Amino acid sequence: MELLPISTPHCRIERDGHVVIVTMNRPEARNALSSDMLIGLASAWAYVSAEPEVRVAVLTGAEGTFCAGADLKAMGQPSQDPDVQARAAQIPNFHWKGLLREDLPTKPIVCAAEGYAVAGGTELLIGTDLRVVAESATLGLFEAKRALFPMGGAAIRLPRQIPYCHAMDLLLTGRSVTAAEALSMGLVNRVVADGRALAVAREIADDIAASGPLAVQAILRTYRDTLGLAEPEALKVSDEYGWPVIGSEDAREGSRAFKEKRPATYRGV
């Protein structure tokens, strides 16, 4: 595992082959969001998009907690690290990019959540593509209960991801939910034993990394770019993204590998 130099004091960014592991690393504050963390997250997502050999990311939290939401004081204070300060000046809207509200990475993110994943932590989870949570994890959007608003996009995204009544239950009551209830709502993919979320998320990430990267990215892009479109218009976009994948060298390699009964070796071309 290679520790990348874009890491910050509150965000550890590591790469292992095609997979990038992003760890929110402020356990003394239950990994509550800070400027150092958000700049690290924004840097990680930009790196994932820009690096051709990176195919998937995993987002997790250090020491048994995912993220307890925003630390408004820490988010308002500049980093003490000169390099991170310089990066903050170079990344417009790093808060929104770090929170996956703007400039989503072009590759999938698998979430691995243990412990508290509440408020901004749940908003981050909602911004990911696949979600693994530990059985004792706690999720919830507490903003309305505190007369606040979920600025990470949950008021828009959640009713599009799960049934309306469940989304409004979470958004309007501000109550917490267990991992089992989140699974029953369709908010998460898998519930696993405590301490296993990252390992299972990594297994999923490895499966994605073994798939054709052009296909994976085109599927993700098609979903995002067709939100709100009627089916005929959406199918035109799907064809625009899909036909180049069908005609790619990777597609030919996939067919050869299937016929030869061997693992495929995809190069993203």
How does this model look, in words?
- With 269 residues, this protein is of the alpha/beta class.
- It has 2 domains: 2-210, 2-enoyl-CoA Hydratase, Chain A, domain 1 (Alpha-Beta Complex); 213-260.
- Helix content is 45%, strand content 16%.
- It has helices at 35-50, 72-76, 82-90, 94-98, 120-126, 154-161, 164-173, 179-185, 197-210, 213-225, 231-246, 249-260, and strands at residues 2-3, 11-16, 19-24, 56-61, 109-113, 116-118, 130-134, 138-140, 176-178, 190-192.
- The protein has a 7-stranded mixed sheet, sandwiched between helices. Strands 6-8-9 form a 3-stranded mixed sheet.
- Helix 6 runs antiparallel to helix 7 and helix 10 runs antiparallel to helix 11 (231-246).
- It is globular.
- The two termini are 26 Å apart.
- 42% of the residues are buried.
- The mean pLDDT is 96.
- Belongs to the enoyl-CoA hydratase/isomerase family.
- GO terms for molecular function: enoyl-CoA hydratase activity.
- Its EC number is 4.2.1.17.
- It holds the Pfam family ECH_1.
- It is an enzyme of class 4 (lyase).
